[in-house]
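Just scan my protein:

——
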Amino acid sequence: MPATTPKAAPKNIESKLAKLGLRTDMDLVLHLPMRYEDETRIVSIREACTRGGQTWQVEGVVTKNEISYKPRRQLQVTIADDGGELLLRFMNFYGSQVKQLAEGTRVRARGEVRHGFFGAEIVHPNYKVINQGAPLPTSLTPVYPSGEGLSQTVLRRAIADAMKRVDWQDTVPQGVRAKMRLADFEPSIKLLHYPPVDVDEHELTERTHPAWVRMKFDELLAQQLSLKRAQRARREKGAPMLRAVGALSEAFLNQLPFKLTGAQQRVVREIRADLREGYPMQRLLQGDVGSGKTVVAALAAAQAIDSGYQAALMAPTEILAEQHFRKIAAWMEPLGVKVAWLTGSLKKKEKTAAVELVESGQAQLVIGTHALIQDTVQFAKLGLVIVDEQHRFGVGQRLQLRNKGSDNLVPHQLMMSATPIPRTLAMTYYADLEVSVIDELPPGRSPIVTRAVDQNRRDEVIERVHAAALEGRQVYWVCPLIEESEALQLQTATETYETLAAALPDLKVGLVHGRLKPAEKQVVMDAFAAGEVHVLVATTVIEVGVDVPNASLMVIEHAERFGLSQLHQLRGRVGRGSAASVCLLLYQSPLGHVAKQRLMTMRETTDGFEIARRDLEIRGPGEFLGARQSGQAMLRFANLETDQWIVEQARDVAQHLLQEEHAENVATVDAHLARWLGGREEFLKV
């Protein structure tokens, strides 16, 4: 940046630093460079010009300074040394720069040397006005992540000042550092801010240098300590002991028309053991699409009801909540259980009646959407909360439902997800949860063949749909997700519906989308389930929970617009019967790199965990975690894909430090959390 950048008032700088989350000296010290520039050596202008196309630093005296107006207004400054001359070109410049770069001024400039229309030049170089013989830096120059109105000069100065004031005490015990061969904290930080010239640049940019390993370890250790402390705090709270696995649970199992898989039985045992404890269960139930999570949830609810408590099941969308309600009520109500239904779209009279049933305790199981967490809903004796597709709810929403317990007891919580979470991610972000996995599909499920088909072959696909319907099979045709506009999404779905209805006059084509009233949606879904509708055109409202065993062909239009987990969820709507199932991914050429990777993954595997692992590679952890992490800083330095070994070590050290609860360890843990989380711990505790 030009040296004349006006100095902002200190208060002004403070507020700009705060926008970057840099409020304390330690925040500044831990604001590490994203890359480095080598300003430690100068090459002659002649050498820089003969080896163009690379970034060089040169020094020379200004021999010419003029403002040109062709092809647009620009400042052209020529500098020269003993062996040659070079043009510095500025498209955006201030009047003060014109004066600053007057003829006769000595300048040190750095940038990519190109051969342009006017000869060798650097466009918009970094430069400094200097005196002859000014010393060169002895370390690489850091380039920091910055924000509006914060120059690198201001950031560098603020960080250097902060480094003079912080407490450099090492918060990782000496024994741990020695055992794990970790570099010390202070020299690691100083090296990362001011790397010596002889540093291994590859290690620095790839973040494999011992100094970077130390930062990653510290960051992961803070996260593990915080989550494990939250887990411990939860265990100190009281929860109802749901000890009875009685008549209802037995009758429920006996009337099921199928036998539980080995994986389901194992998971049921894990949940039953948790529910008997006097502290709140916090268990994540993972299972691939169609693995039978709903029946496991219903068995957990039966245990709560057997023990004299109510259970609540909350789902993110009305269509999913309704599918749970229909399925579970059909199992439970013949056994004498009163199941209440509560959603935002109920008429006032129906809602009031449902709320009264919940409050009086007559409703033993309550199923619904966000409506369950409204202030008007009071439970008589809530013992268990089940949250489906948990990543689609915010921290606050889950907390509200948990707070509806009575007698100062916290209800047990079972969270379900059909989006498998890769092991490293679960270890890192869900270290405060117990995780159960249903890793086996019920018998009789047919394998799904997946093919990617260019949009130009649409007519062939319609032919395929026609042939499948004539053989008695049913078909889903899913329309693309259009983020920008619900109206546009509706238009696409309606147009597709009209095209298919015209192309297949002998078939019954149905349409469901987000704008339909729940009752209208249900009429179409029921007709499809009954086999009266051959082809169902739908937006992603059918993403989860729909179960029609006769549907064995799915067409996903503009598949390149969907994420991997969503494609996998949608594909899971077929393959639920014994017929061979096919999923066709219609795409629009040309495909971008990420879209290509996604479609290739879908063709190669139907394993949800493998898909989740690849999704993590493509997208990083952010989107996986959903609103659970709102407010919590993502990992800044550690990379879950490449740093799994550090995650495992940090987890073990955290466990050791928290087990040995003597004063020294408590102080160490407090100091480490204060340094790395600085009061942001509350976001980790839900």
Observations:
- The mean pLDDT is 85.
- The chain is about 40% helix and 20% strand.
- The radius of gyration is 31 Å.
